[in-house]
Specification:
11 helices
Length: 335
C-alpha cells in the first residue's frame, strides 16, 4: 500500500517517525490541530493491524485485559459510542458506558465535579463526548489517565478525522496531492475541522463549500480554499466528503429550506460527474438522505466509502486506545 509522503524536515521515509513513545508523545488525544505529520501517520499505521484483525472470524486481542475504559457521553451518540465500545472490548478491556441521561450532570453537578468523580474511579482511559467546545480538554486537565475526545461542541472530533484519512488511504494510497472537497455545514462541524487539520497536514488540497451563512469567517487561515458554488468546488475532486446539515444547532436562519439547500448543495449523480471519474464519496453519518446526499449516490457501488468509514472507525479507535495506554501498561519504549 502506498503511504503518505513526508517533507524533508520530518523523519525520513525509512524511519517514518521517531522510535518508541516519541512517535506519539501525547498523553491524550484532544485534537488533530498541531499534530506533526508523522504522529498522524503513526496512528494510521497502528490501525492497520486492527483492520486486519477485525476482518477475521476471531476478533480479539487481550492486550488491554485488566484495564477499565469509561465512555462518558454527555451528548447522545449511537455509532461513535458503539464504535468505541467495540474497540475497547476487542482489545480485552472492561468497558463502562456513561450516558448523558443517566449522569449526575442532569442533577446539577458541575463538569469539574464530574471529572473529579471519574478520576476517583481510577479508570485507565476515559473517552468523552460533550456538547460544549473545550469541555473535553477541561476534563483532561483534571484526571490522571489518558483522555480521548469523541467530539466536543464545534471544536474537533479527532478519531473521525483519522478514520476518514485511513479510509482515503485505503482507497487512494498517498493522501498528499489529493483534491478533497468537503461540503455542507462547515460552521457547526467538528468533523470538518478535524478533517481539515488532518488532511492538510498530510499534504492534501482541501476545498470547503457551504452557503455563506454556514461558512466560518477567516476559514482560509486553516489552509483551505472556500467555495460557495458547489459545482465549481467539485471540479476535479478526488474525494467528495458530505456533511450532515446540523439543524439541531441552527435556529432557522442559516438556510432558506431543506429543499433549497438540496438544490444548491446536495450531492446528486449529475453533480458527482463534475468530480474525477473515480472520486470517492464519503459521509460521517448519520445522513439526511435526499438533503445533503441522494440515496443513489450514498449507495453507489465502487464509489461510496460510507460503510468503509464505519469499519475504519473501529480500527482507529482500537489503535488510539492501545497507544494511549502503553505507558500505564509499561510497554517497552513507552516511558
Amino acid at each position: 500500500m502506498a503511504l503518505s509522503s513526508m517533507t524533508s524536515s520530518n523523519p525520513t521515509a525509512a524511519g517514518r517517525y521517531p522510535a518508541g513513545s516519541a512517535a506519539f508523545a501525547h498523553r491524550d488525544l484532544i485534537a488533530l490541530a498541531g499534530l506533526a505529520p508523522w504522529e498522524i501517520l503513526f496512528l494510521l499505521d497502528e490501525a492497520e493491524q486492527w483492520v486486519e484483525l477485525n476482518r477475521k472470524p476471531h476478533k480479539r486481542d487481550d492486550r488491554l485485559a485488566g484495564l477499565t475504559i469509561i465512555n462518558a457521553f454527555f451528548e447522545n451518540s449511537t455509532r461513535t459510542l458503539l464504535s468505541f465500545e467495540i474497540a475497547g472490548k476487542r482489545l480485552g478491556a472492561d468497558v463502562v458506558n456513561m450516558h448523558a441521561a443517566q449522569s449526575s450532570v442532569k442533577k446539577g453537578e458541575t463538569l469539574i465535579d464530574t471529572a473529579m468523580t471519574l478520576n476517583a474511579m481510577r479508570a485507565d482511559a476515559i473517552v468523552i463526548r460533550h456538547q460544549s467546545s473545550g469541555a473535553v480538554g477541561l476534563i483532561a486537565d483534571k484526571v490522571d489517565c489518558p483522555v480521548l475526545n469523541a467530539g466536543d461542541g464545534q471544536h474537533e472530533h479527532p478519531t473521525q478525522g483519522l478514520l476518514d484519512a485511513l479510509t482515503i488511504r485505503h482507497a487512494k494510497g498517498d493522501i498528499a496531492g489529493l483534491k478533497v472537497t468537503i461540503c455542507g455545514d462547515i460552521l457547526h462541524s467538528r468533523v470538518a475541522r478535524s478533517n481539515i487539520h488532518c488532511l492538510t497536514t498530510l499534504g492534501a488540497e482541501v476545498r470547503v463549500c457551504a452557503p455563506p451563512a454556514l461558512m466560518p469567517a477567516d476559514i482560509e487561515a486553516l489552509k483551505v480554499s472556500p467555495f460557495h458554488d458547489f459545482n465549481v468546488a467539485l471540479d476535479g475532486a478526488d474525494v467528495v466528503m458530505m456533511l450532515r446539515l446540523q439543524q439541531e444547532r441552527m435556529s432557522g436562519q442559516f438556510i432558506p429550506s431543506p429543499r433549497e439547500y438540496r438544490h444548491l448543495y446536495g450531492l446528486t449523480l449529475d453533480r458527482l460527474a463534475r468530480a474525477r471519474p473515480d472520486a470517492l464519496v464519503m459521509h460521517p453519518g448519520p445522513m439526511n438522505r435526499g438533503i445533503e446526499i441522494d440515496s443513489n449516490v450514498a449507495d453507489l457501488a465502487g464509489r461510496s466509502a460510507i460503510t468503509r468509514q464505519v469499519e475504519m472507525g473501529v480500527a482507529i479507535r482500537m489503535a488510539c486506545l492501545d497507544v494511549l495506554t502503553r505507558r500505564s501498561r509499561k510497554v517497552e519504549g513507552w516511558t
